[in-house]
Amino acid sequence: MNNLFTIKRPSRLRAVVATAVVPPLLALLAACGSGTGDNAPVPASAPAMAVDSKAAGLLPDSIKSSKVLRVAIPTNEPPTQYYKEGTKEMTGINPDIARLIGDALGVEVQIEVANFDSIIPGLAAGRYDMTVSSMTPTAERMKVLNFVDYLSIGNSIAVAKGNPVGVKDEHGLCGKRVGFLTASYQLTTHVPEYNKECTGKGEKDIATYQYQDTRQAISALTSGRLDAVLADSPIMGYAATQNPQIEVVANYGVDPVGVGVPKSSGLIDAVGPAVAAAIKSEGYAKVLSTYGIESAAITDARVNFAQ
């Protein structure tokens, strides 16, 4: 598979990072480099979780035997997932949540990095066991995957500094050139809704441009090829602290995101209670409180709750 490599790392050794950028951290993040993730902050390691023997006992025999959980995670997009400085080792909220789940199940998490739009096909083909990729459960995705909620994430719109196109919110995107992550919830679910609004106002639809990661979209924005970028708030908030050529003009909406596993694997029986244990753990609370984003936490690991 293109742009795919495998990382093995013991599930009990990890670094904690935030799911979003909040005011107390802006000065810290602004000093962290170019926004590639190479110099993104890496706070102290979270405590390991104890094994949830009941959840572990529900693992499919193949994973019980291998004691390895292959977890698909998207490409480099700090702070949700990024490479530790000078390495090809992934850290960030999604890798660390995956490792908490691995702890609960008593297995090693083997992170496999892939483009977002290749994750569902890879799960269907058996190349991965699970994904922790800020993926919003939708009715369409739930045709092939089971989901367990693990976090709530908002949306952000970024424009060139000074907002030359005058976009104030999601209702002002009609006729604009807007960049999206390929196969993202914003592109597949929000854009059709926004275009209906555009039609009702007698305006042109949003001109959508797709990218494999938001860094590519931001590059297009700063070079004048886009008018705006719409993506997950944690990623856009961090990018704005790293790139003085862009600014975030709107933060809105909160949607749960879920751990995804193939319907045919039977893994949901173990992952459901493991995620429920993870979100009640000290590690989960610490990763949110460290960055002042307690409001992103969830208390109910809902299974197959479509957005």
UniProtKB/TrEMBL annotation:
SUPFAM superfamilies in alphabetical order: Periplasmic binding protein-like II
Residues of the Solute-binding protein family 3/N-terminal domain: 68-288
Keywords: Signal
Keyword Signal: yes
InterPro entries named in the record: Solute-binding_3/MltF_N
Signal peptide, first to last residue: 1-30
Domain of life: Bacteria
PANTHER family, sorted: ARGININE-BINDING EXTRACELLULAR PROTEIN ARTP, MEMBRANE-BOUND LYTIC MUREIN TRANSGLYCOSYLASE F
Protein name: ABC transporter substrate-binding protein
